[in-house]
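I would like you to help me understand the sequence and structure tokens below and explain how sequence relates to structure.
___
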Amino acid sequence: MKEIKVQDAVGQVLCHDITQIIRGVTKDARFRKGHVITEEDIPVLLSLGKENIFVWENDESMLHENDAADILRRVCQGSGLVATDVKEGKIELKATVDGVFHVDADRLNQINELDEICIATVNNHVPVRKNKSVSGMRVIPLTIERSKMDRVQSIAGDQPLMRIAPYRQMSVGLIVTGSEVFHGRIEDTFTPVIEAKLKTFGLTISARALSDDSKAMTLEHINRMLDDGIEMILCTGGMSVDPDDRTPAAISASGAEVVAYGVPVLPGAMFMLAYKGDVPIMGLPGCVMFCSKTVFDLILPRVVSGERLNRLDLKHLGIGGLL
């Protein structure tokens, strides 16, 4: 940066905030760093006691923080995201839809490992609402080497680091297992819980069935729902290792590909996820009925947003999995 007379500063980029103090009225920055000085600004600057100011000295090897922030914005901004205007060298990304936030953590970490770069986000794979800020980005100094920003773009490649996967509308089948419910000995208290959780994503139960504890009856209901075109099937209860808990066996017998039975999440360790073609089938342990937050709350948004989860997705839930 260089120091020049205020009268010669038109068109120059201010390198520092200039504060205006009016007793009892204001004490705030009248001009922010990064501001491009206009002819109209000259008398204001002089009234603030500024005969000389520091402006950015153009150097082809360097980039101003605002330009660098826009490069970060370009490598980060994917579908479902909108950018704010740059302010004091920082840009934020906000969700344009309700959905699940996704960020490529490996590439983001590589970029943040470069000195003088700052990209911060909310947690990966979390549900977000429209207009929610999900990321903020800037470079640390006022100016940064152009070569470093070239390195950022090289690491990022052609695909944006972040996106919002919007929720889909899909039909949901619910199979409530347990002889005590099937024979009417106790009230079904599982269904209202599932209905409330689905409502968050604009979904309702399209088909519901009661099953005793037999593998055969649960399998019959699963197959019928598959034949009817149900797009997600939830099986509640019968998920423990007790000999009379046969829901996992019924899901496996349907021919579905089992992703995992047992996950590192508490409550919800006995959760099961399988896919029959494109249809996710979940086995929900009893804790979903009486705990406010369980593994189901981690998995449901991702499934509703269209993500197909694999074994490692589930096995890597342990960090943050104590709910």
